[in-house]
Each structure stands twice: as structure tokens, then as C-alpha cells.
């Protein structure tokens, strides 16, 4: 129907549109009361750098077009990264922003998920106390969704990152595991591979690895004997790949203790206070985990000061690993109970790294969240 929009069959005219406008106005008033300045990033954004920040899922679903002047552009798939881009273009000063507008994401055939929907959001750039900033954003979103009632999920991407960074293994392995933090299945496959050591090589592979141990020249000679390369890779690419394989083959496997410890961290789930206690118990054997636990504890204390029963908040170290790849710290989601047909009503987290990338290294700590007005109305009974 032409009158339908995300989750609302009558959201484009009449009473349905009026209700949506009233809801977005309510949300924006709350953001203004929190000191936010309204911002409106362009709908068309440069695709080259931004798609890398979003990660695989959004890359596959972004609407991309070729502009004869501006080059490859995309319809914004969210607001956070465009807001960061706008802010960092004018320096890294503390700021608070609010926004509301449409975003676009392509969906698989047969999917019931909308390809256009509204996001209203609040972004906080502040070099002060990160725990207080995290708590403020979470409390603000909880209050906005509160009348509906919600299921809460929280996590912290910094925990797993800290454990990976502390592994006693080659830098290229830590980097590979880091790249796959947001892809749980690929991460686990890598972990198993690195823990099992190098697989038995075929005769051809063994010959190539033996040549790689002697250096690039030996690999080049071996390739030249085989004739012209078949496929898209040239001899230089094949040589580089062989040298990487040789480096991997020469790297000792992760110990069973390291793999088991990572598995233990990944399995932590429960009320926040109990989860933190469990992580504290694992910290003596994991460099970097103590600092990550300290940050979680500081955030729980900040949430408690805002009247939230922080110790009881559901927490999982794996939460957030299938969402946007720019989150690097606290993450949370607020969902409607009994409504699996709806996305999270609100979600957000910390994304310090994005500001450094878009600021040319001059970043500023940042945390933010979005709320979906259409989904919120649907959860309140505005649509079936």
C-alpha cells in the first residue's frame, strides 16, 4: 500500500502520520532537554571510506550509485557515521547532536524488514568521563522506551578486543581475530585453526611452503616453472600469499589454555554484577582483561547513580557481535517483549575508533544511540 511505511500500515497520511509526527516530536524534545543540537547530514554519503566502517552486513545492503562528479555515493544506511563525519570536519570539540530522518538498507527477497525507515538519535562527543557518558545515553533511551516496557541486552565489545590483544601469538593472528570480532562463526573457525596448528599440507602446498621458507625469489622460480598463472591472481599475488602461508605455518599454535580461556570469556552471560565477577575471576590469566573489567565496573556505578538497577541488567560478552562493526565499547539494545517481528526499539553504544578514522587520527570519545519511532508505535499497538 502507498500509505504504508515501516511497521505502520497507515503511517504516510492522516491520523497515522500525525501520530508518527507526535512521537518523533516527543523524542526530539527529550534530546533537546539533554542539551542536543539538531543536525541533518546529507542523505547521499561518500561510499568509499564509510562502507569500510560499517562492515560486511551494511556493505551488502547499501544502496550505492555512481555520481559523475562525486564518484561512488550511497544512501545513508544509518545516521551515526554521517554525523561523526560532519562533526569531525569541524574539529573534535565536545558536542551533543540529535536527528530524525529516513535511512535506507536493501533487504533479501522475501524479507519482511523495511528498506526505508526512520531513525531518531542522540550522539554525544565528550572527552570527559566515558562511564558517565555511556550511562547518560542508556538512561535517556531507556526513559524514552520505558512506557512500552522492553527487554534489555547489554555487552561490551572492548572485553573481547582486550583479550585478543593480550594473546601471546603473532601480530598477524591477533589482527585476523580482531577483524572477525563481529563475525562469530568466522572468529570461532579462526580460533580453532590457530589452536590446532597448521593443517597437513598436500604435496603441492608443501612444495610451495618449502619454497616460501627460502624467500620470495624461490617462490618466483617455482611459479615460473608452472607456467602462466590461471585465474585473477598474478605471480606477485601468489608469491605474497605463499609467504603469508609460510609465516602462518611457522607460527606456533595457540595453547589449549588460551583457546579455552577465550571460549570461557565468550560464554559469559547473566546479570551484569555476576558477569563482572566471573570476568574478574578470569582476568589473572588474561593481559588486558582487568582494564576492561574496570571500565565495566565504572559504568555500572554510573548507571546506579542514575537510579538504574545496574547489577541486574542482562549482560553478555557476545552481545553486539552481529551488529554494526564500528562499535568498540559498551553496546546495548532495547526490544519489545513478544515481538520478534520488530527490530530493537532502541540500540546504541560507544564508537571511539570511528572518530579517529574520520578525524585523521584526531578523535574524540563518543557514544550514541538510535530509536526507531515507527517500531516504537507498532510495539505500543499502533500496528499489527
Automatic annotation (TrEMBL):
Residues 18-249 form the Class II Histidinyl-tRNA synthetase (HisRS)-like catalytic core domain. The keyword Coiled coil does not apply. Keywords: Glycosyltransferase, Plasmid, Transferase. Signal peptide: none annotated. This is ATP phosphoribosyltransferase regulatory subunit. SUPFAM superfamilies: Class II aaRS and biotin synthetases (SSF55681). It comes from Paroceanicella profunda. One of its GO terms (cellular component) is cytoplasm. GO terms for molecular function: glycosyltransferase activity; histidine-tRNA ligase activity. GO terms for biological process: histidyl-tRNA aminoacylation. L-histidine binds at residues 78-80, 105, 119, 123, 321, 326-327. The keyword Protein transport does not apply. It comes from the Bacteria. InterPro entries: aa-tRNA-synth_II/BPL/LPL, HisRS-like_core, HisRS/HisZ.
Amino acid at each position: 500500500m502507498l500509505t504504508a511505511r515501516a511497521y505502520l500500515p497507515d503511517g504516510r497520511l492522516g491520523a497515522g502520520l500525525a501520530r508518527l509526527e507526535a512521537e518523533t516530536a516527543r523524542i526530539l524534545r527529550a534530546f533537546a532537554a539533554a542539551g542536543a543540537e539538531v543536525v541533518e547530514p546529507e542523505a547521499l554519503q561518500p561510499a568509499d571510506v564509510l562502507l569500510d566502517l560499517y562492515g560486511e552486513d551494511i556493505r551488502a545492503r547499501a544502496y550505492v550509485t555512481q555520481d559523475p562528479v562525486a564518484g561512488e555515493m550511497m544512501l545513508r544506511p544509518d545516521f551515526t557515521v554521517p554525523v561523526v563525519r560532519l562533526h569531525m570536519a569541524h574539529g573534535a570539540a565536545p558536542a551533543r547532536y540529535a536527528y530524525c530522518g529516513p535511512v535506507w538498507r536493501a533487504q533479501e527477497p522475501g524479507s519482511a524488514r523495511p528498506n526505508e525507515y526512520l531513525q531518531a538519535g542522540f550522539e554525544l562527543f565528550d572527552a570527559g568521563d566515558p562511564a558517565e557518558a555511556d550511562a547518560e545515553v542508556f538512561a535517556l533511551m531507556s526513559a524514552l522506551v520505558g512506557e512500552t516496557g522492553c527487554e534489555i541486552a547489554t555487552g561490551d565489545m572492548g572485553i573481547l578486543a582486550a583479550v585478543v590483544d593480550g594473546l601471546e601469538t603473532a601480530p598477524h593472528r591477533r589482527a585476523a581475530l580482531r577483524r572477525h570480532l563481529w563475525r562469530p562463526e568466522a572468529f570461532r573457525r579462526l580460533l580453532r585453526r590457530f589452536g590446532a596448528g597448521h593443517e597437513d599440507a598436500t604435496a603441492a602446498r608443501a612444495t610451495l611452503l618449502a619454497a616460501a621458507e627460502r624467500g620470495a625469489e624461490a617462490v618466483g622460480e617455482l611459479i615460473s616453472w608452472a607456467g602462466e598463472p590461471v585465474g585473477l591472481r598474478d605471480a606477485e599475488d601468489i608469491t605474497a600469499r605463499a609467504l603469508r602461508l609460510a609465516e602462518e605455518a611457522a607460527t606456533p599454535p595457540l595453547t589449549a589454555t588460551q583457546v579455552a580461556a577465550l571460549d570461557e570469556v565468550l560464554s559469559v552471560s547473566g546479570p551484569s554484577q555476576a558477569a563482572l565477577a566471573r570476568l574478574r575471576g578470569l582476568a589473572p590469566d588474561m593481559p588486558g582483561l582487568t582494564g576492561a573489567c574496570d571500565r565495566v565496573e565504572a559504568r555500572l556505578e554510573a548507571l546506579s547513580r542514575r537510579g538504574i538497577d545496574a547489577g541486574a541488567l542482562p549482560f553478555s560478552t557476545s552481545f553486539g557481535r552481529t551488529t554494526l562493526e564500528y562499535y568498540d565499547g559498551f553496546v546495548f539494545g532495547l526490544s519489545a517483549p513478544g515481538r520478534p517481528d520488530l527490530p530493537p526499539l532502541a540500540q546504541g553504544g560507544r564508537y571511539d575508533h570511528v572518530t579517529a578514522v574520520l578525524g585523521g587520527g584526531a578523535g574524540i570519545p563518543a557514544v550514541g544511540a538510535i530509536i526507531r519511532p515507527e517500531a516504537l508505535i507498532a510495539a505500543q499497538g499502533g500496528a499489527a
